[in-house]
Queue: 2 jobs
Job 1
Amino acid sequence: MPAQIINGRKISEEIKKEVKQKKEALFNETGIVPGLAFILVGDNPASQVYVNMKGKACEELGFYSVTIKLPAQTTEDELIEKIKTLNNDSKIHGILVQLPLPSHIDEQKILQAIDPIKDVDGFHPVNVGKLVIGLDTYLPCTPAGIQELLKRSDINPSGKHVVVVGRSNIVGKPIANILLQKRDWANATVTVCHTGTRDIAYFTRQADILIVAMGKPEFIKGDMIKPGAVVIDVGVNRIDDPNVEKGYRIVGDVHFESAFEVAGAITPVPGGVGPMTIAMLMKNTLQAALNQIKVKELAN
């Protein structure tokens, strides 16, 4: 029986609608509008597209946003100074530095320069540490979106075997930590596979929930999936295809056609995890505004 399609576009619209309602309630009560600053260094075309999409989401929800575009030769110190200015700007509740950065800039130094209370990407070591030990914090947007997809599709990871393929700081490590917490919509047994794993298929065939974030187009085939498993495909890969007008297709890390015949539920690419990332960024920015209001109230 073919798999149920998990519609990330539909679910992300539900979340954005909820965030907009809360944003309007916040404004009516306090006059405060959640503010988000994007910093884009260089002219990476994909980064420009992502920042534009995030800016449009802010506009749609009535958030205040500003995009700061810096040349590729911007120094590390110049970028840190720009972040410090935003850290002290009361209209800005969230700061997002679009990755990747030019090779001469130390990514970790930049992420650590962001005030943790404005780190809506959830990448600052303080927020990563809180995630690992189970404290409330901003969850990285893509992993948080994955958990929300499962929740709103009534797929409870509790007691299930989740296999994560990929160990990046952006997806693999945080989703593994999120789903093993002793919390609702988590509490799973989690296995993480990566480039050093021998016979990945041995592990993927054991997964009740398989999350693939490895950056290899269509690597996971249907015969690597346990019948009835839930498959969450995080991959976004551009592959040449002379049979389509654009000359290329966007595919995931999972071979959709073969997986669709085996899985119980699956996210498509595009239209699965991708839209959730922006929805969760908006949710984190709203939460950041609420957190900063609370800090001010405690200080007065």
Note: The radius of gyration is 20 Å.
Job 2
Amino acid sequence: MTEARGSAGLNGTTHARHTPGTPCWVSLMVHGMAATQEFYGRLFGWEFRPGPQQLGPYVRALLDGHEVAGIGQLPPDRHLPVAWTPYLASDDVDLTAATVRHSGGTVGVGPLDAAEAGRLAIASDPTGGVFGIWQAAAHLGTGITGVPGTPAWNELVTRDTESVVKFYQGVFGYGLEPVVSADFDYVTLYVDGRPVAGIHGVGHGLPRDRGPHWMTYFEAADVDEAVERVVELGGHLLKAAHDSPYGRVAMVADPEGAMFSLIHTVR
């Protein structure tokens, strides 16, 4: 997903600066910070430390000392969907935000500085799918991938790929590889010849109460056991564990309803 720089143990890959267009961070805005940290800490073994507070209380999740995700506090009067949001790397967030607007998207927050960490914006594509844009300074983004508890993949779930793929290609310059199939609408997004994210058209299978949205996949050592843990911790199973060409996968939600997928990647 990202540019590798060195290694972390035998199984993980550490990362430095991310190439523009690659998912470089995932963040979750919630109502109950303490309960959410408890849930993900017990599920993934994350520890937490404070992060920039520009948008309210915020913590960064760490795994073996490497930053892997962020969790922030929603204002009490904001009744927004609780959802994991991927941040896509940019060398110039102001230019990228302007390109989003010119391409039919919307910029809802920023661009603004997050202390010394970097500069960010939160935007949505023309169909309503929300994503972040991150220009790194001190904070480069996700520090490790490839081990349980780290982001493994990000995928836009939308009605059809045709309506939105040109937007992302125009803004981030992705290479495209569509699946040629009458009953499977999928486009893989590439940066420098590497697959970095996907767009999945699900037609009428799109949840009416959610609309188009980005889905984050987290690596799990054992998907079935992780699903059991989610439920024990107060979360919910949305799609039972099953085998896919990329590994065993399941869809779940945390106690506040934030959806995410668990995957044990085939390597």
Note: The longest strand covers residues 106-114.
